Amino acid sequence: MRHLVLALLFVLSVPRLLLAQQTQEQLASYHFSRGEYAEAVELYEALYSRSGNKFYYQMLTRSYVELGEYRKAESLISGRIKKYPRDLTLHVDMSELHNRKGDRKKARRACDEALELIGVDSRQTADLVMAYEAAGLLDYAVRAYLRLRDNTHNRYLFVTELAALYGRQGDYASMMREYFDLLDHSPQSIESIQISLQRMLREGDEPRVAEALRSTLVERVQTQPDNVQNIDMMIWFSLQQKDFAFALAQAKALDRRFGGRHGESVWRVAQVARANEAYDVARDGYAYLVNKGSQHPYYMESRVGELQLQFQQLVLDHQADGAALKTLQERYESALAELGSTLSTVPLLRDYATLLAYHRHDLQAASDVLYDILEMDKLPPRVRDEVKLELGDLMLVAGEVWDASLLYMQVEKSNKEDLLGSVAKFRNAKLSYYNHDFEWAKSQLDVLRSSTSKLVANDAMELSLLISDNMEQDSTFDMLDIFADADLLLYRNQLDAAWLRFDEISRRSLSHPLLDDVLMRKAQICIKQGRYADADTLLGQLYAFYPDGMLADDALFLRAGICEQHLQQDERARSFYELLLTDYPASIYTEQARKRYNEIKNR
Predict the structure, then answer these.
(1) pLDDT value at position 19?
(2) Per-residue pLDDT tens for 108-152?
(3) Between the CA of residue 258 and those of 98, 268, 574, what are the distances in Å?
(4) Which DSSP category does 187 fall into?
């Protein structure tokens, strides 16, 4: 019975003991944070003597050091080393203490002792490395990993960690050696290595990292000509450096030499080149694969890629005349006759419908193509909804407003929590705007201004402000009616008719708040017609007359793009990007402008 009572009293006392210890710890921390180290020492000594907790040991050591009581600190560390001989981090504590005392020789000896005690325990070594790194002793951290490798006879322990350490030291040659030795040993690690190197290229000393990687690749490819992974890495690196022609040459060489799956490398390079507007390289890559014949695994993808490339150049880049568009239509029809209407050719069919609707002005044929896609079995739901949006756009162009709105609502309903739903809602609101139902359109646009998509939110805000500004200024909505009609003509790609309607606003008023929007729309028409110098002039007027307006940053960004991509005026482009960055730091174009500015500057 007596033992039971004592046990019960002990159990009841435990919470009090824990509470007292917690209170004591908080008080010790309070004194330490205020620089009252003598008071902190008194409390931490009591806490450490009771529990031997490593945190208390660390705080007590720091308190001794701050008070200059180095002998006590050394005695404390030595005692803990004897008690916990496997905790090699304690030797780093001793090294830091000697450094604090100014005894560099003893500090080095303490670090060396830890290295000599490394065995085959990976966890123990990892802890020691962390202690070395925290003390800024990167060279010792490297030596710790290398000693563990020697002891375990395992060359591939902690490869990524050691490579990162070499990178922090600026020893990029050794960093590359680690990665490529691992690649030789484990080819399946290529993707993780590429991710690590991409991070280093982005965050480190990019020119030195790139040069070290280039040198390593050249050496490895020369000394190991049959190592496919090295050639894959050469292709990947060339793409990172935007040297698309060299990447394609390497991909072709890889395919010719090894065949098999390596046609994928050629196709991948062509895709990346097309996305980066390196059209000649992309065309060369697609043609190479198409010429291998219809039985090649990438024949269909390359035929699709060829046509998408032509579509991108002629249609999206506004470089097409009637004859070129007719030829492109014939190529689409020939390809579709050969490849058929299947899930694999859906991207081709969608571009073909766009070509028919907006550039060959055959709305019926375009809608037939989109309806055929919607009738396909196993069509992915997202693709189905994207095609419905495109069909809704065609209905709007054809004047079938109700049918267009119904399709938009279907897509919105099935994608309530998705970007596609926000896009559908925006298009429905814009439809109401085209239909002169301005109040309803504005109410929907105001909801979209909080969209998670920055682009949708920005577009919704711009259209909402355009409506509200002009509803207030013009109670009859006459000018806004004309502007909405002109916008619809522009949307339908009836560029000359749209220009005349926008011009009507300029003629009827010299001070209407829509005039900055009129300048922007006219500039957009010029861009679509390939009249880049005229677009540059209009955008210059917009910025000069309305530097504080909603469209000022849009005008600068568009103007910079025109100068860079079409007028070959890089310095003017750079000045516009710089102006956007300095005067409009909150613009949605800031990130793109900074990237373009740096690329032009480094050419």
Answers:
(1) 46
(2) 999 999 999 999 999 999 999 999 999 999 999 999 999 999 999
(3) 60, 17, 45
(4) G
Verdict on whether the full-model pTM lies above 0.85 = no
pLDDT, one tens digit per residue, over 503-537 is 998 888 777 888 999 999 999 999 988 899 999 99
Q: Are 108 and 86 contacting, i.e. CB atoms less than 8 angstroms apart?
A: no
**If you count them, how many residues does the chain have?**
603
Q: Which residue has the higher pLDDT, 473 or 166?
A: 166
Residue burial 564-576, b: 16+ Cβ < 10 Å; e: rest:
bebeebeebbbbb
> What is the helix, strand, coil percentage profile of the chain, to 5?
80, 0, 20
Backbone angles phi, psi at 212, to 5 degrees: -65, -40
Is 474-601 assigned to CATH 1.25.40.10?
yes
At 567, list the tokens. 């007028």
14 pLDDT band, cuts 50/70/90, is very low
The two most distant CA atoms of the chain are separated, in Å, by 107
The domain spans of the chain are: 474-601
Q: Which residues contact 291 (CB under 8 A, 6 or more apart)?
A: none
In whole angstroms, what is the distance from residue 455 CA to residue 442 CA? 17
CA neighbor of 161 nearest in space, from 185, 132, 202, 187: 132
Other CB atoms within 10 A of residue 293 CB: 8
Residue 373, amino acid: I
Q: What would the pLDDT profile of 192-234 be if each residue is shown by its tens digit?
A: 999 989 888 887 677 888 899 999 999 998 888 888 889 999 9
For residue 151, give Cα distances in angstroms to 118, 121, 144.
8, 10, 11
